[in-house]
Design goal:
Elements lengths: L2 H46 L17 H36 L1
Helix pairs in contact: 1-2
Protein name: Flagellar basal-body/hook protein C-terminal domain-containing protein
Length: 102
């Protein structure tokens, strides 16, 4: 396999990992904000209720999947590191080949 192909595969893989890291980070942020908004809304409803039995709880919604996003974030971190190592190795091999030719 030509060195250029290995280098390109490493760069493409690193870019893909970076995009997935950004997506996982946005998912974590969105889930955190949604959770905080639900809790604040429930607290406001509790405060506005005249009597405790009139208090309304926050609507039941899907729980945020922060755990999945955190796992995806960690997986993409490993992908980025692996692709960075591929790029570094291709660079070293190319450098060695240039040294041998000269």
């Amino acid at each position: 396999m030509p060195i250029g192909d290995v280098l390109n595969a490493g760069v493409e893989g690193f870019n893909r990992a970076q995009q997935n890291i950004e997506r996982a980070t946005a998912d974590i942020n969105r889930a955190t904000v949604d959770q905080q908004s639900d809790e604040q809304l429930a607290q406001q409803r509790q405060l506005q209720a005249a009597r405790p039995e009139e208090a309304v709880t926050a609507p039941v919604s899907q729980p945020p999947r922060i755990d999945e996003s955190l796992v995806n974030l960690k997986v993409e971190e490993f992908n980025a590191k692996a692709n960075a190592q591929t790029i570094q190795t291709a660079d070293e091999v190319l450098g060695t080949l240039v040294d041998i030719k000269v």
